Amino acid sequence: MSDDVKTGSELDPPELEAADTRVGEPDSTTHAAGGAGAAATAVSGGEVVGQASLWSDAWVELRRSKLFLVSTFFILVLMVMAVFPGLFTGADPRSCSLGNSLLEPSAEHWFGTDIQGCDYYARTIYGARVSMLVGIFVSAAVVAVAILLGSLSGYYGGLVDSLITRVTDIWFAIPTILGAIIILSVFDQKGILQVSLVLILLGWPTLMRLMRSSVLSVKEMDYVQAARALGAGDRRIMRRHILPNAVAPVIVYGTITVGIAIVSEASLSFLGVGLQLPEISWGLMINEAQGRVRNDAFLLFFPAAFLSVAVFSFILLGDALRDALDPKSR
Amino acid sequence: MGRYLIRRLLQVIPVFIGATLILYFLVFAIPGDPIRALAGDRPIPEGTLNVLRDRYNLNDPFLVQYAKYVGGVFTGNFGESFRGREVSDIIAQRFPVTLRLGLLAFVIEAIFGLIAGVLAGLRKGSFIDNLVLVTTIAVVSIPLFVVGALAQYVVGVRLDLLPIAGIADGWQSYVMPAFVLASLSLAYIARLTRTSLSENLRADYVRTATAKGMPRSRVVGRHALRNSLIPVVTFLGVDLGNLLQGAIITEGIFNLPGIGGEVFRAVRGQEGPVVVGIVTIMVVVFIVANLVVDLLYAVLDPRIRYE
Predict the structure, then answer these.
(1) Is the pTM of this model over 0.80?
(2) B86 phi, psi to nearest 5 deg
């Protein structure tokens, strides 16, 4: 089709204009079959322009996805559990009596009781709060840092890029668990805030690299060139054209990062360098349970199951988002 | 390639200096005076304190301490712990345990991960494929320390098949920890192999090979599988560094006297020199693993060309 236009232009410039305006109309008499096909697609594209962004397509796709429905169901339940634990249990996880120490699961104590005689079901429910808080906070912060640094680095290139990439390489070379153990031992207090900050500090490089490479590939797209040719400034190009198209992989991995952060918090608490005891965390509960596994395996089972379901849901949600956001996989 | 190699090697230097500088600074910033901690509750004479502080360069500014230490490391001197043992001795004693654990885990994840991935990838949608998908996502979701504790309970306590902790039983003691350490990466490798293989099986060159009458086993073995292994091999490279990290948790659960458990104890006991020595080794392994992966990538995949 473009060949047709070109030959037209060589012959007679005014006709080129006519041909140009006619592209997209159903009755393009100047072109043969190829032209008609292109015109038809342009029209069908024209009807949905404005709504058919990557994200609205993805939403249509997501609503049909079983993975998405299952994972969001679990995540919603866990969120409600984190915000209103009282809806799930009337028992107070901190009112314990030693007389009830290590009871097996029963009608009164669904998950039994721990060594202090606390209701284990209540403790498991209240444990959701720490995990969800750390997971979502860490992921949101890491995604924000990654988007900021990744787009600066990928879009501007040059010195800015070299500088940001070098710093990222350095942080990337620090092993997470080892780094976290050392950093956390610097703090006197080890609360949710400290643990989250450490995980953010050690977690952003992966996502920053992802964002940078995504921006690099989007930057070369024709529509970015077109926007620039039309006189759009850097900020407008970044916000309106690059960001919406480059952010998809970061959102997908950011969702999985919630799961990774939950595991990391639990692992650090399990090792004894994360949250400390009056706090209720699944990692701490598993730590205590490990030594009693021989006689009281249920102490290990319940927090482990909740923790795994939480992680599982976010990984699954990430998978569902990736399927929906990747047009090639449809 | 030669130019890329040199540039990539030069990049290692600032990364090593940056990463160790950050970690040393943190170890330096851990509150408390390690020399006073040595003496416990008893008071320590000012003179002794100063002699000891001089001996461990604790009176120098941080950057001087750092320079002295890194200078020492490059001449094979890892310094001395506050309790008077050579750090290189401690590492030499602990490292073999971690190495055995890591290598066994590496072999396990490579073999089992590849087999599971190939079986699943060859027949997408089959029972085996679904089985692999479900098991791997379950393994990925269950944290390492939970897998460890569950394995101890089921395999060690209930079935009484393998030793639960320690290394008193020789190589058998390593089997369960290695499987636990390998589990996460095993799942990733299986998934990676599956995706990669099933994608390659749809490629034109596979159709060509089939069309010219090549038997299926040869098509898969010589054409599809070889190309599918590129991402898997690179993952295995990166994973060498990750295994060392996972060893900190695994050694904790199974009470193995390796480098991971040692660094953990050293952080708690404020044994700065020991922490710093082990950290240096871990960072080096991590950086080298990433370097090898980058180079391997260029060698294995001729489509990737570096200027």
Answers:
(1) no
(2) -65, 130
